[in-house]
Amino acid sequence: MTLNRRTLLAAxxxxxxxxxxxxxxxxxxxxxxxxxxxxxxTGGDTYQNSAIVAEALAEKLGIRIKVDAVGVGEAxxxxxxxxxxxxxxxxxxxxxxxxxxxxxxYADPFENYIIGPSVAINPGNAYLVPKNSPYQSMExxxxxxxxxxxxxxxxxxxxxxxxxxxxxxxxxxVRAPGSEENIVALNTGSQSDKNQAMWDGLADVINGSxxxxxxxxQLPEDDQKAMRFVWITAGGAVLExxxxxxxxxxxxDQLLKxxxxxxxxxxxxxxxxxxxxxxxxxxxxxxxxxxxxQIDAALTEVFEEGAIQERQKASFFIxxxxxxxxxxxxFEEKRDTYRRVIDELKSGS
Amino acid sequence: xxxxxxxxxxxxxxxxxxxxxGIVFGAIPGMTATMAIAVCLPLTYSLGLENxxxxxxxxxxxxxxxxxxxxxxxGIPGTPSSITTTFDGYPMSQKGEGEKALRIGIxxxxxxGLISLGILYFFAPVLADFAIRFSYVxxxxxxxxxxxxxxxLSSDLLMGIFSGFLGIFISLIGVYDITDGxxxxxxxxxxxxxxxxxxxxxLLPVLIGVFGLAAILEQAxxxxxxxxxxxDVKIGRDSSFSFSIFRGQVGNLVRSSGIxxxxGILxxxxxxxxxxxxxxxxxxxxxTPERFGKGEPAGIVASESANNGLTGGALVPLLSLGIPxxxxxxxxxxxxxxxxxxxxxxxxxxxxxxxxxxxxAMIVANLAMFTMMYxxxxxxxxxxxxxxxxxxxxxxxxxxxxxxxxxxGIMFDVWTLLIFGLFGWLGVKLRLEIAPFVIGFILGPxxxxxxxxxxxxxxxxxxxxxxxxxxxxxxxxxxxxxTASVYLAKRGKGGEATP
Amino acid sequence: MGELTRITIDxxxxxxxxxxxxxxxxxLLGLAxxxxxxxxxxxxxxxxxxxxxxxxxxRLLGTVVLTVIYFSLMVPVGDVWPNxxxxxxxxxxxxxxxxGLLFLHDRGWxxxxxxxxxALIAPSLVWWTFTELFFLTLx
Lengths: 349, 499, 139
Prior knowledge:
The complex is a heterotrimer.
Chain A lengths: L1 H16 L14 E6 L7 H17 L2 E5 L3 H10 L5 E6 L1 H7 L8 H4 E10 L2 E6 L7 H9 L4 E5 L4 H16 L7 E5 L3 H9 L5 E5 H8 L9 E6 L3 H4 L12 H5 L20 E8 L4 H17 L1 H8 L3 E5 L1 H25 L1
Parallel strand pairs in A: 1-2, 1-3, 6-7, 6-8
Antiparallel strand pairs in A: 3-10, 4-10, 4-11, 5-8, 5-9
Helix pairs in contact in A: 1-12, 2-12, 6-7, 7-14
Chain B lengths: L2 H4 L2 H19 L5 H8 L3 H4 L1 H18 L1 H6 L9 H12 L3 H34 L4 H12 L1 H5 L3 H15 L2 E2 L10 E2 L6 H4 L5 H19 L28 H16 L5 H15 L11 H25 L5 H12 L8 H4 L1 H31 L5 H19 L4 H19 L4 H25 L4 H4 L2 H29 L2
Antiparallel strand pairs in B: 1-2
Chain C lengths: L16 H26 L1 H11 L2 H24 L5 H18 L5 H25 L6
């Protein structure tokens, strides 16, 4: 094993000396790579995005990459065990949000792992109300909270689904301190549970997504299942890169009405709060930096060629490649912003 | 595009081929329909939507059906949804009626599949609207009804119920899963084992542990007696199968297919609950309930028509709410999104051709399943004529593969297999009852979520009785099932006293 | 009904509710078993001695030991050639062979040969099907 590793390291450093963009760079990453993901679903967006990226990367480097949906806890364990580059991980903002919300099993990814390149955004995170709801907009919801009305929001606690709820509370606090108490969470699980919470009359607002809920917004108002978007957390600048036909019967321009700047959920009274769910690589802390350089270089080429963007867009992902260094800085900044919001809400209440 | 343009020879070949691969996956203990679909999902990108779906639906139907083969012949459920098939199928095999049991199972599967397809085709949107009236409360009561079968399956009522609750208890070990609505906290983990047990024990390794490994350990304990097989399967005339077995089973068939379909329609109740519920119902309504669990054909009929009924049912919420009805259909969503097709309440209206193609693929898959399995019965039955010293090591190895791959490569799942193999072997000596234990283990997590969430969301304990008329009906069923079990247990005791 | 049946659940501790409830029922059932069956439990020594004396110890314990070794070696062996599934392949061949041998009653060459052949063919076929054809991860 040591021999293997030594050969690997020798090969890696030798090639790092030479130009990195060469095809010979394929020597660095092992020939059989396992890409574990932080979700245990093979039907979800993490898997889909990982499959697209893994396929392109494998083809570029002439290696095999297998995507395994083992879920976050097991993915971290697999990553911990292996620093040879044979195990890589793909996840999204949940990695650090879970840590910020203090969920068991979520170690600080910045401390325990290396944040690698980012590859895509899923701009779909959204909040919806029943179609016959008195709330026409986020403005109405925040005003209701200010007037002492309880607004119940169905979320899955501890991460991506909660961050928008945290932002709503924060905005309520900025507008009228104390009114954030009137925005209360209904803790549920899957999308099915959240929808059901709305139909059961347990929630006034639910977290959902453009992809999963758009068709419900097209139903006639007298259908008990009908819904309406009130907020899409992705920034307008991001959503603008989506295909103009949007999703289903809702065009991109219609979607933009629910996103910042047209729908404003304030961060601090001046700027709007936005949240883009971004997918990125995570590496073992002791993995050879040459392998990271190799992945960065290969992905740069893949994204320059442009074919991967078409596939991502066809699946409603926004291509969003950042090489490792840039990506790390970006996520640290993003994490710090959300940490402030979460901490201020905690200390305020 | 006309529907005939979609139904090409390739489309049909994919549906049939998918069914074949599905049967193989289902027939291997530890390999499931879900896994078959996950493995083949990437292929569908290049096949196009309709052809890709033909393949995946074939895998789905085949995978669910194939599970009955090891369930009947070896007493190991090939997939979790064939668990109740082992209760009567394996005793029949032991009595030398393996071939007959296989025939019954395959016919019941076909009927279940076709009935549920009919329901899917004609009533999907209506049923989806009905299904969303099931809130946490009603779902809890459904699970509770399914749990009452623990009592029905116990040969010693007290020990059986204890075993069932032990199964629930062990299923709760680990995290209270956030993705199901929990708070992500750990509980019931012995100190120092957090690293291993944070995710709890997975269902499939537990199942093949207590049914597969434990059976082999029991054989090893008695020295692996010589002889050809685990059971002498009579092939040929002696097995005396005739369609007259199904006389008097029409009600059972229709009811079980209906239950299977309906459980499939309810998101989050889970596939294995379908066959457990219909088995429970079949026993409750049977004139000879005491024969269940000892090789009663009606038990196989109930179990297999329900788990194939599930296939049509689980597509209802998928295609009319965009929500999967079970684990396998959750992966099917991936096939749609890969092609940029939304699933939701407008799917059927917006994509009539795809919808019809799916129904046709399901019909083809069901017929292909029936034809292939019916004519392969002799071949299946030969499995048990393989000498034990060759068959057992291979079963052990396949169990390892199944356990390792079920969650895409987790070694602890393989250790789980061993732990529960030993537990199953020792448990029998402690007079624990394995069937109720497994039922408790399967249903425990859903029982917890729906029970706690009912109280959390509605904040009142009376909600279980007052929520809706559906709740009241479910209570009637629960009480009926319990009364029947207690009555039977009493009668059984009386019978034993006077031989 | 009103106040009596009202229940407020604290989400932070909601993971303990159901385990406590089930644990309580389990304890009660356990107690009931002790009370009604204590005679049998006290006299179970003979039952266990009987099991121990009738047990085919080499075959049973041998199976367990071989399985433990098999499971323990799979991952370290597989790690030498990462993500190829060789750990499974290399460990399964001797495991299938040795358990087969253990279960065998007459160990002449004619009996061992089929065991050896199956021990070579079955794991190889399975390994090829799952790693190469279905692209699944094996240890």
